[in-house]
Write a structure and sequence with these properties.
Layout: E1 9-11, E2 18-20, H1 24-34, E3 35-37, E4 44-46, H2 50-57, E5 61-62, E6 69-70, H3 75-82, E7 87-89, E8 96-98, H4 102-109, E9 113-115, E10 122-124, H5 128-134, H6 146-204
Antiparallel strand pairs: 1-2, 3-4, 5-6, 7-8, 9-10
């Protein structure tokens, strides 16, 4: 069976497409009248849609978050990875905030402490992961030597003694006040009896 030979083609000088040679003249007339090549991407676009093609494909656009102007094709990457106003979350508290504020926020947030339930120590949040991998569950407060214990007891005894000495002047003042009140009461009572007896003697005479 004979195989049909391929039809001869010619390259359109306007759009660089391979066109059957029998139709090349008709194609060229239509192509040159209706199409033009985009100077940016090289695509052939209808002349009546050339401006729309440029605006929708190549015109610079502004980021809706930071208002920075850029080419349209890099806008998605900018918004997802580079925009300083994109919303990110703090790794310590998961609070959402603009990326430009993240470093300052985490500097403060990471210094907050939480209680480790294994060793009962308060650990900074920024050190929490490394602490968990090394924590043995033994509190440093339970590892003190007997010497430290005796020193602590002596210190507590000294504090109690100082407290007692500080209380002595107040106790002395209170006793002196009670003594003064008692003496004054006795003096008033004796004076009253003296004047009463003197008045009786005066009436008798």
């Amino acid at each position: 069976m004979a195989v049909a030979s391929e039809e001869a083609t010619s390259i359109c000088s306007h759009c660089d497409r391979a066109i059957p040679s029998s139709n090349i003249d008709l194609h060229f007339a239509h192509c040159a009248r209706n199409l033009e090549r985009c100077k940016i991407c090289g695509d052939m676009v209808p002349k009546k849609h050339a401006e729309e093609h440029f605006l929708n494909t190549h015109a610079p656009v502004s980021c809706s978050l930071c208002n920075e102007t850029m080419e349209r094709d890099i806008l998605p990457i900018h918004k997802g990875e580079n925009c300083p106003q994109r919303i990110v979350t703090c790794e310590f508290c998961e609070f959402p905030l603009p990326a430009i504020d993240l470093a300052e926020h985490q500097e403060v947030c990471g210094n907050r402490t939480e209680l480790c339930h294994l060793c009962n120590k308060y650990i900074r949040l920024r050190e929490h992961y490394n602490h968990e991998t090394r924590c043995t569950g033994v509190s440093d407060h339970n590892v003190g030597s007997s010497r430290d214990t005796r020193a602590a007891e002596r210190e507590q005894g000294a504090e109690r003694e100082q407290g007692a000495r500080r209380r002595d002047p107040h106790e002395f003042s209170r006793r002196r006040l009670l003594f003064t009140i008692a003496i004054t009461g006795i003096a008033v009572l004796l004076g009253s009896l003296f004047f009463q007896r003197k008045a009786e003697d005066t009436r008798v005479h």
